[in-house]
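Feature request, filed as a ticket because there's no other form

It would be nice if the structure record came with a short human-readable summary line next to the tokens. Right now we just get the raw output. Example of a typical job, pasted below so the devs can see what we mean:
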Amino acid sequence: MGAVASGAMAAGVKVIGVIPELLIAWEHQHEGITELHVVSDMHVRKKMMYELCDAALIMPGGNGTLDELFEMLTWNTLKIHDKKIILLNCNGFYDNLMAHMRTMQAQGFLYENVEHRLMVASTAEEAMQLLQSF
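Raw output as currently delivered:
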């Protein structure tokens, strides 16, 4: 994420970071971004990130990334928000996840077609085109 933030800053983009107090001791927070919000916990972080964003770009990541993805998908499905969600599936990183989501859909566990709520991009360039389309 630091490289993405640095690249965005170099391009003149405003970059806002949100980090819970707990992670300050574990991770290096980017000191050179436009704004850095230190919040009490992950729940506050996710809520603030949602409130600050125009859309969500989900890049390859771990448990926290999946937690944030599924919370946003759930909020979107429940019509708590209607912000666009783009999954960056570079090098097929999320192929198995997308297959599983299609299985959940086929088995009747989803209210609608997963592609109605989640746009998938294979490259960073494609993701940027999707972001610029709305």
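Something like this underneath would help us a lot:
The CA atoms of residues 33 and 39 lie 16 Å apart.
The mean pLDDT is 89.
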